[in-house]
Amino acid sequence: MSPLLTACIGIALFFALLFMRMPIAYAMALVGFIGFACLTSISTAFSMVAKQIVNTFSSYSLSVIAMFVWMGFLAYYSGIGSRLYLFAYRLIGHLPGGLAIATQAACAVFGAICGSNTATAATMGAIALPEMQKYQYDDSLATASVAAGGVLGVLIPPSVVFIVYGMATEQSIGKLFMAGILPGILLMLAYMLTIYILTSRNTELGPAGPRASWSERIAALKGGLGEVLVIFGLSIGGLFKGWFTPTEAGAVGAAGVLLVALMGKNLNWESLQKSLWDTTRTTAMIMLMIAGAMIFGRFMAISRLPFELASWAGGLDFPPYLIMAIILLIYLLLGCFIDALALVLLTIPIFYPVVVNTLGYDPIWFGVVVVMIVAMGVITPPVGMNVYIIKGVVPDIPLEVIFKGIWPFLIALVVCVIILMIFPQIALLLPDAFYH
Amino acid sequence: MRQFTAFVAGLSQQLDKLAGLCIAGVMMLVVANVLMRSIFSRPILGTYELVGLLTAMGVGLALANCAFKKGHIAVGFIVDRFTPRIQAIIDVFIYSVTMGFWFLVACEVAEYANNMAENGMVSSTTQIPIYPFIYLLALGILGLSLVLLLMFLNSISKALPGFSLARLPWQSEWQDNTRKASR
User: Fold this and answer.
1) Per-window interface: A 56-75 vs B, CB < 8 A
2) Which side of chain B, N or C, has fewer Cβ within a 10 Å radius?
3) What does the pLDDT look like over A11-35, one tens digit per residue?
4) What is d(CA B149, CA B137) in angstroms, rounded to the nearest whole number?
5) pTM of the predicted model, to two decimals?
6) Which value does ipTM take for this structure?
7) Which residues contact B27 (CB under 8 A, 6 or more apart)?
């Protein structure tokens, strides 16, 4: 059997196992092993799997994931999210749709200390939804705004998906983090505008909340924003300035959140333990997925599929933007079924050489676009992880109601991706200015 | 069987606690190194390799509990539509394959550690032997295959209604635990 045919059968087997509910990490490792064994020998394949697992798990560079994950869980358990929301709520909660707009601002700022869209959606869902229900917000708008707002957690640094993309493509994590800032702010503004338009046309969707006095607003400012700015400045600022490696930035950030939480008496022993157990579980899940993707990537590499695909795409008589559009469409379709992180890990070895080496697109810009595209998957049916998380927070609201409200936010996200494709400078401005 | 369930549950939790200590250790070590480097211009020797080895232990030892709490992401929207019995039959296949695969991987990683021990492989800066960390990683993967064995047995009892395991009390207890965990 030819290596290329083996690779195609391997990809088909992977999807078959995936849709049989085999965990993604297991499926990637198993298919990678079987494919590698077919093209070499069983003993060589076992040896490769063992070495990949040892090398991935003991990688200093990948230890950054555990640090940023813990930082996010510490922020979650110490209640920083609720204090951030309180500030945004007192500032703009009195406007029509103000609570939903405030949720976007709080999601963006919470994203600055938490690298996960699910953690951001879970945190803000638990805090913002009861408030929006209290002021009789439309269920669809309230739930969808929080689910969509979670996406901001992936774009605004630190972001686990950017870390994994950086590792897989050997790009600077600092540059990727920096490239995510402006698109993250753009998306936040697009979401806010969407809510404003929706509630202006129908004020019953998001009735205005009570107006807070300026003294109340200033009091709320002290309870969350200051802490986040200090931790973000120290951790991510230190990374941008070159003081820290990514792992050090994550460890300093986690230590900073822990210190702030302990000083403010916002974290007890039980919450600290919970944050640590959630971190070990999430880190194990991510790292096994990376190891699985590495094994799968080795199989793909010896089958030469990525190289053949790259030379085939290079020989096509299509303009590069059309090939790029097809690739992004594939991401969009796969993103509806496969987890964002797994999709990046799975597809980067295949598409990255085509996009960067053959078509000549900027790898940092491509990373931002891919992250935005795969992030759509967390709010689209049938998998839509963030929607299920919000459903868990408000079990009495049917899934259909949440998905119905997602559409305007999805359109905003698509518009942002189009803007980013037309104006790549939005992503590249900060890294270019800072690193030159 | 009840003893086996209790053993697997207890083992995965204990391994996870050790993993938590490793992750906390990484954070403390890295922060201490940053402070020593910036304040006293004296970084802690071997931080780079110790962080790698502690992370390997931390991740490896957390694998079993992550699987026990169904933490590994799977795509269930097709299988979820089938009847519970069909789902259980599919699960029997999935768990039998993955259990066997991870058991063999655990053996291979242990063999890798054996070779390291025989060749006297040590870390480059601090000269710490690497093989004990790799043995612990193999133990973590073995724990993962034990959890998958437990899930395999549970799926068999669901796929075959007359199978005696279904009537044992441990099963409902285990199902309650996993249901709570998945929430």
Assistant:
1) 57-60, 62-63, 66-67, 70
2) C
3) 999 999 998 999 989 999 999 999 9
4) 19
5) 0.84
6) 0.88
7) A67, A70, A251, A254, A255
